[in-house]
Amino acid sequence: MANHPTSKFLVLLIILVTLSTTFIPLLSSKNVVYHNVKRSGMFDGQILFAPYEGTTTYLINSTGVVNHTWPSTYLPFFEAYWLGNGTILRPYTYSGLLYGGIQIINWDGSLSWNWQYVESGCTTHHDVKVLPNGNILMIVWVSITRDQAIAAGRNPNTIGNTLESDKIIEVHPTGPTTGTIVWEWQVWDHLIQDYDSSKANYGVVGEHPELIDINFGDSFVGDWLHTNSLDYNATFDQILVDSHNFDEVWVIDHNTTTEEAAGHTGGHYDHGGDLLYRWGNPQAYRAGNASDQKLFGQHDASWIKAGYPGAGDILLFNNGYNRPNEQYSTVDEFTPPIDVNGNYSFEPGTSYGPTNFTWEYKATPPASMYSQDFGGANRLKDGNTLICTGMQGKFLEVARQGDVIWQWTNPYPSPNSNAVYKIDYIEPHTQLQPPENTTNISCTISGGIGAHVTLKNIGVVNATNIEWQIHVTGGILKRIKLSKNGVCTLLIGASTTVATDRFFGLGPITITVQVGNTTKQAQGTQFFVYTIIKS
Known about the structure:
It is a single chain. The chain is mostly beta strands. The protein has a domain at 441-533: Immunoglobulins (Immunoglobulin-like). 5% of the residues lie in helices and 41% in strands. It has 3 helices and 37 strands. The protein has helices spanning 5-22, 146-151, 258-261, and strands at 32-34, 46-49, 57-60, 66-70, 75-76, 81-84, 87-94, 99-105, 111-116, 122-130, 136-145, 162-175, 178-186, 191-192, 212-213, 227-233, 238-243, 248-253, 277-279, 299-303, 314-318, 330-334, 359-362, 376-379, 385-389, 394-398, 404-409, 424-426, 441-446, 448-449, 452-457, 463-474, 480-490, 495-499, 505-515, 518-528, 530-533. A 6-stranded antiparallel sheet has the order 30-37-36-35-32-33, with no helix packed on it. A hairpin with a 5-residue loop joins strand 3 and strand 4 (66-70). The longest helix has 18 residues, at 5-22.
């Protein structure tokens, strides 16, 4: 058959159309909308996000240009966070949300850390938070059997075979795939109920706002609380917990031991692991009615950082799930009644303040911004707010007075599957790619029962698979000769303490520490099992 020019053109056209609908370029400025402002009026940083239905994490600027991507073989669970110098922290899920893990991914796509919480009936989910010491807070589902829930006072008519509660764990990374749980807080240790006086936790719910009513919050079958975000306040050593199904945010004391966190006393505020503060829906502790409810299935509650407008206030994406009369989402800011010592004012028999929001963004018309699930907000230094309307995959920047300055719609992994749980904002002038220099680990030698060495990452890159050795020699007749070695992983600024086993001896000793290619020595005295280091 003779080749016809028209046939060739049609074939070429079909190929081009197919390619254009199959591949999305890493340049999506066509999705950017500017709202009658100069380019200089918009944010100058970068946005990091992990699409809900994709395995790639993206870094974009305000023009929608993708500056970098991090690949993964797993779907996110749910948002990625910037750690610095090209490294991100990314929670993930596998086996259909049955299991969760956490990865630290380097700029080149290699893994610094890949940790999975393997404990029967437990799954990490939704959110994580890196602490100043490099440890990582994680939310964990805890599967409770029907019999256990009923024994704790749950109404049998509102439970199936299992009920998912939540706990928060703090994990210290110790190796490429290992970590140690150094702290834990469980909701199940802080319950109250007035359903069955013959069961545990029985009491007057309205007289104990510091406790959690086991029979409240039934909007998700099985997933009782649906805790969906965490934040940390370093000034007061407090954790902010977002409970979707209670339509509340909670504050707990992190300055406790695990044992204190399981009780009602101890810690900095002498409340153990009981709630220090709660807000959003006083019906949860019998202190109000439906008209007093402020939060509706909210996400991404966080403290506004020091140095930003509204510092110390709590900012969140208020989804509007089951909002009466009309369903729409807002971004809300409120000011907790907290003093300079981290104590929250409360009058027994009333609800926690404040009575209303400090600031709110509501779209025009309101229903034009509605995300039943997902969503987040970030306060910028100029007072503007970055918003992620999760299910629509739309990002926007709004001014304090409510004007929309900028918006962009995510096209990844495809325009029809573009939901984003929330976003992480990276400030302007942040170094994106990792520097060329090597890791820098300091070591401090101390005594006690055995020789102790504190290792701290004072460099500008994460330190992975750092080998360390401790050698102790000396004593009377030089009878002391022992060694201890291991491997550790330290995020930027993180530290850990390693030690020898307990040993016996008398007399002067020399302690030699080798970390990577660095060696440090200290002189000391061994007095039976106690090691004394010379200053």
